[in-house]
Amino acid sequence: MNEDHNSVNVGRDPARQRLRTELADLLIESGDLRSQAWRQALLATPRDAFLPRFFMPHSETGELVLVTTSDPEWIGVVYSNEPLVTQFDGDPGATHGVPTSSSTAPGLMLRMLEALELDDGMRTLEIGTGTGYNAALLCHRVGDKNVTTIDVDPAIVETARGRLNVLGLQPTVIAGDGANGWSANAPFDRIIATCAVRHIPSEWIAQTAIGGRILTTIETSLHGYALVLLVPDGRGSASGSFLRDAASFMPMRSHASPAFAQLRGRAAQTTTRRRSGLRPLDLDSDAARFAIGLALPDVSAFSITTEGGAGIYLGHHLDGSWTQVTDTGSRINVEYGGPQDLWAVAEDTHARWVRHREPEPSQFSLSVDAEGTQTVHLHTAQGPNTWTSFDAKR
Known about the structure:
Among the domains are: 258-355, Double Stranded RNA Binding Domain (2-Layer Sandwich), CATH 3.30.160; 361-391, no CATH class. Strands 7-6-5-8-9-10-11-17-18-19 form a 10-stranded mixed sheet. Strands 12-16-15-14-13 form a 5-stranded antiparallel sheet. The chain has a two-stranded antiparallel sheet with strand order 1-2. Helix 10 (286-293) crosses helix 11 (342-355). With 394 residues, it is α+β, with helices and mostly antiparallel strands. It has 11 helices and 19 strands.
């Protein structure tokens, strides 16, 4: 592993320990950190050991710039409650592009870990190793022999393993597709994903012990996000609620959207035109992107700008359906092709969402059956009703 481990050594000095204490105090004050067990884990685990380099927004341009141990602001940013990008385009040497790995904001990390209700010795699977910092916190809480962490990127895995080993931690660190879990160490008492998924992989349910928990983020087609905590029933099914805690993560690579050009290339050639009363901006809130996006499970959305104005492009992953919606300022133009009018689905679902007084993600729940059908329920004063349902195995 080619990186300077000087940060590991100095990460244990009194100044760094004081910074960890200040971060712990900050997270207690914000309500992100509530238990003594996780406070001890935070104090015992040097985040600086896992972040010798990262990217942060430039104060003037906003462009992500590289920060290393030689920069004076490095250590202060490491111990801030901020997410930090660590990789672009799956390339350890890239300094710009599409972010493909990061270190989660410590506050969100601790909220998720506390939501798992971990106890001593619980066998835990982490999906998305990243820097290795979250795995180190897990090792402190349940013991490194009880922790398995998996990441699709072999370079990330090698680096994280080295950082963990330098701290004397030896969890199972695997390079592989996290959607498949890791059956060799199953069953797990807890599974936590630090990446977003479009649906719950059946392997996660199969590899969770009865009474165990699965915590992950669901990302919808419109880039709405919500944490969901599921309890498997031991027969291939699982159910649970979306949490109030806000969270957004990079997608698990096997669940990532196809590229815009790829979707355009497979789009149906027919074109139908119409007008709409629904503006793309009507879907701009987090709650709307989540609720309306749930009804378009096999769709990806892209912001576009055309000569006619700004808008949105929707592309179906499977059947070639596409929709381009443009807001000219005076009217909403819709062009679409293929077997489905995707914007009509968005219109109908948005109207239903408004009728229900624009519910937040925490008003929904999720159930997954043994055949792969995933159903989202909206909970109202009259009781639960089905919001959307789709087959994740198709």
